[in-house]
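Look over this today:
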Amino acid sequence: MDFNYDIIVIGAGHAGCEAAVAAANLGSKTLLITMDMNKIAQMSCNPAVGGIAKGQIVREIDALGGQMGIVTDKTAIQFRMLNRSKGPAMWSPRSQSDRTRFIQEWTKIVSNTDNLYMWQDTVKQFVFDKNTVVGVQTTLGIEIRAKAVILTAGTFLTGLIHVGEKQVTGGRVSEPASFGITEQLIEKGFTTDRMKTGTPMRIDERSIDFSKLSEQPGDDDFHKFSYLQEIKRELPQRSCWITYTNEYTHEILNQGLEFSPLYNGQIQSIGPRYCPSIETKIVTFADKNSHQLFLEPEGVDSTEWYVNGFSSSLPMETQIKAIKTVPGLENVHLFRPGYAIEYDFFDPTQLKHTLETKKIKNLFFAGQVNGTTGYEEAGGQGLIAGINAHVNVNGGEEFILHRNEAYIGVLIDDLVTKGVDEPYRMFTSRAEYRILLRQDDADERLTEKSFNIGLADSNRFRQYKNKKAEIDSLIHFLKNTSVKPKDINWFLSSKNSSELLHGCKLSDLVLRPQLTINDLSSAIPSLKEKVENIAHIKEEIVEGAEIILKYSGYIEREKLIAEKLHRLENIPIKDKLDYESIQSLSTEARQKLKKINPETIGQASRIPGISPSDVNILLVMMGR
């Protein structure tokens, strides 16, 4: 070994694995450093991937040639498409995964990716040449050189675990924390702070009384995460189960609040508002007598279950006493209590949109070190960091996704423009163009872009082109095939849809809310034949064509708005103005523009505190 690489990735979590595999697949000699090679892409918290807006990110990762969607499908033990009662912009895939097999599948990928190597060790500091990173030093005393380094340390930087008054250093339960990196970066002028997250207790399936719970089975249809036809769910499917806390539960939890690290001053850091602990719920929502809990299996063969909704850092005795008041869990056996963990993160406004740091060349941050929470947000960042680290090393254009192109683009732009004041979690409401950023069309938005830089392979690109051609062909057929009243009115009447007075195109009927393409194919032989001859996944083609037809007006309107606002992204502003000297700007605007130093007028307009009048002033100044 010569200990010289193109790219080093620190941490083999979800961000690190996506970054390392992407960089290696693009051709960079890549080293992935991890404390434990047996826990590649460990699901530190819940054994699930996806959810509201998060599922869209996973589909985008897959469309770009990343791995999370493939691994999730292969290890899925339950799949659900959330929000089906709403419009397709809100549909969000979510999957329970077998925790052990998830690690195994990722290990197979990492172990069989050309140009990718592993080293089991802990990085204690970077090696710099002035303001450029050139390698790392490890606790084993080894100096490893590289042209670029990606930090994806998750919750391990100065990690501190809390269970009541008990405090233990660690990045995860039973795993050591990492020290040295934060202190070194502070010396380099980086701004850092602490965040807090938590996880629930794990319980034994054999001690659960399922007769008192409500079953929640998964969906049994064609939906999945990966766009690749050959990737399918392979494991037996399992149900989740629902139960509720009650007044007795809350009474016990309230009695323990004085011992809660969150309320007695032991924890001072920022916690997640959108994934609160059970003690936060009973304080914030004191008027509620119950809170829903989801019991989620951790695997096909495991008896370990996850109590979703009962995250806690209360003393273990309080957690046990409280959980035993929940219906179905009266005799529950714990594998381990819930705990909170505090860790270091870095203000993400110190990053470029490529996720390279502004202060140190060729140093990239991805994942929870940027103040995010969630496997999906981490994986999306890792992929972008891996691509751009490769670009820095080998040349080429930086790879940036814009807000109208991907949720990943929204995520990164929010981080580097607005920063974070709590762990960042993606929601559909964060995207201005969510009708354009649907889960069904991520391949149309992103696969060709990725293929052009060499990440998405020819098989993926060919499948995308075939799918697009079949959707276009079906839409063309529907728009150019007429139907007469005498041939369809009997069917329209059966569907409580108004009868035709004269002939129309099939596409006009698809626009009716009561009708679907599948409905119409049962009544119109030529459409039935067209659908049956679809070579790709028929359901996916039909669904894609139907969404485009039914929502074409909304889609086109949003495209026009996006294109209009995107013009501001084409006006570069970085390092072109002395903001402090522009007295017509508000004091807040001058301070924030100087701090962020936005790349474009568009980015400047999204900085909190920058008003429309400030944007107009910048446009005038650039015009001069």
